[in-house]
Backbone:
């Protein structure tokens, strides 16, 4: 396999809703990424579109917002990990030698899909609806309760994640949520699925995010960002497999990514994880080896995972702050990490950032781990 | 209303008899893994699997309370994650009352659906509170 680099990134602001069609948003994000890369559209050999909740023919529709160059294009969907799944396909196209340069963009909103699933009475009962699992917050409320029992973690511990990520998002012009909240305000928020408060869940929105991946070190003057590890897996069967995500899969993908890259958890400067619900971030911090089991909230209270701390986790604001549009979610993690590794993140810059980790899961379930290294 | 007078919501998951409900699983002929719902081949290794009845009792390993309706139940709705005896299979389902981790519960029938389109599903009822 060849080395691969992220030559350019770009995204639209994540918003609660927009009348701009998804393919148009995709074209806007791609144009920013292409300009950032310093490459020409004619150099792009394939376009992969992560599309969720969009009309048919999403991939050619996005392509036609750019130039009709006749390159192959296709769409992929993998729930919340749709954008990351597209990124992985584009990376593989370059790494395998199929093309020199690939473009990838995530588009579409999860909103319409989740609304239709919530209308349970309109469809025959099934295992998912009768168990409450059709509401994504339920398994993570169970995860929170189990952590509280197992580790003695307080119900407020996961609010530290929300406090941190909303603060980061309040300084990110691309974020959907732009207001920081105090712990007192968070503690007063209503319950959604006790012990999980409504404010502990990510917002659903809309937006697009894109990247240009190439086999050559970029010559656009920015620091080169190499993809040092790429791992994709799906859930293995487990005792609660009919209902719950595989809670061991993040450990599997992350440990393989560390082995593949020769990088250790202690070397990470920037981490973006799939914290659709607050407690997930605590769990994944531990799964990645950034804190001992049951101790992530203690380290977070000490500031270890804030910007300026030991390793900045969700410096973009994460899914809770930046937002969770669907197709753009995973791709916006790569936008954040590349800009951080280039030193382009302004007031949110993690000083000296050189290594970043992107983690994403999708319901069903699928799991991805990517490590990026800024090279001099 | 007799909760077992309606057809099963899912015959692979639940058998409805005259006066009771029984969860259905499948034990792998090769690796001994128990799959739920029942299926012809193992969910882990895909070898042939044999239909078995699962235990009607288990232990709560986690729980939450939904502030919105869950098919057939009005808020607040207790959702229990239960490890069934013998197989260790973990089920999520609606409990007929509050539970704590460590509580023993029994599988009980529950009715879901609307109007003349009703089905029998499973839920949990607390046996004791020793948490």
Residues:
């Amino acid at each position: 396999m060849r080395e691969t680099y992220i030559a350019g990134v770009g995204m639209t602001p994540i918003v609660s809703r927009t009348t701009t069609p998804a393919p148009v948003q995709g074209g806007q994000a791609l144009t920013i990424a292409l300009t950032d890369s310093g490459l020409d559209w004619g150099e792009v050999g394939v376009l992969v579109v992560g599309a969720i909740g969009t009309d048919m023919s999403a991939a050619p529709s996005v392509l036609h917002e750019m130039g009709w160059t006749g390159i192959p294009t296709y769409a992929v969907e993998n729930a919340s990990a749709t954008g990351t799944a597209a990124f992985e396909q584009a990376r593989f196209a370059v790494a395998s030698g199929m093309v020199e340069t690939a473009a990838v963009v995530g588009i579409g909103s999860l909103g319409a899909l989740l609304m239709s699933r919530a209308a349970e009475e309109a469809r025959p009962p099934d295992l998912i609806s009768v168990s409450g699992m059709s509401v994504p917050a339920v398994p993570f409320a169970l995860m929170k309760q189990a952590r509280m029992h197992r580790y003695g973690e307080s119900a407020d511990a996961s609010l530290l994640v929300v406090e941190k990520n909303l603060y980061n998002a309040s300084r990110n012009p691309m974020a959907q949520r732009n207001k920081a909240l105090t712990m007192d305000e968070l503690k007063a928020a209503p319950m959604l699925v006790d012990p999980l408060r409504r404010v502990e869940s990510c917002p659903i929105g809309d937006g697009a995010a894109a990247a240009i991946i190439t086999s050559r070190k970029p010559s656009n003057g920015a620091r080169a960002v190499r993809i040092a590890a790429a791992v994709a897996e799906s859930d293995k069967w487990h005792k609660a497999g009919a209902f719950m995500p595989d809670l061991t899969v993040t450990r599997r993908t992350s440990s393989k990514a560390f082995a593949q890259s020769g990088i250790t958890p202690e070397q990470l400067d920037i981490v973006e994880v799939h914290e659709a619900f607050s407690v997930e971030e605590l769990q994944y911090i531990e799964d990645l080896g950034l804190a001992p089991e049951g101790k992530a909230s203690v380290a977070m209270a000490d500031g270890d995972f804030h910007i300026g701390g030991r390793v900045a986790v969700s410096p973009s604001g994460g899914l809770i702050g930046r937002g969770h549009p669907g197709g753009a979610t995973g791709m916006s993690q790569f936008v954040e990490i590349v800009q951080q590794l280039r030193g382009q993140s302004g007031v949110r810059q993690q000083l000296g950032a050189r290594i970043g980790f992107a983690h994403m899961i999708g319901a069903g379930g699928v799991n991805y781990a990517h490590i990026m290294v800024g090279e001099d | 209303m007799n909760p077992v007078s309606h057809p099963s919501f899912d015959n692979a998951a639940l058998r409805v008899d005259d006066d009771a409900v029984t969860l259905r699983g499948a034990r792998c002929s090769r690796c001994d893994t128990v799959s739920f719902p029942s299926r012809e081949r193992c969910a882990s290794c895909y070898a042939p699997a044999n239909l078995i009845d699962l235990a009607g009792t288990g232990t709560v390993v986690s729980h939450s309370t939904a502030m919105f309706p869950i098919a057939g139940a009005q808020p607040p709705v207790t959702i229990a994650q239960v490890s069934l005896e013998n197989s260790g299979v973990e089920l999520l389902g609606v409990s007929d009352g509050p539970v704590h981790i460590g509580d023993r519960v029994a599988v009980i029938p529950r009715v879901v659906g609307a109007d003349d389109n009703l089905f029998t599903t499973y839920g949990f009822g607390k046996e004791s509170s020793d948490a």
About this structure: Chain A touches chain B through 36 residues (CB under 8 Å). The longest helix of chain A spans residues 22-37. The mean pLDDT of chain A is 96.
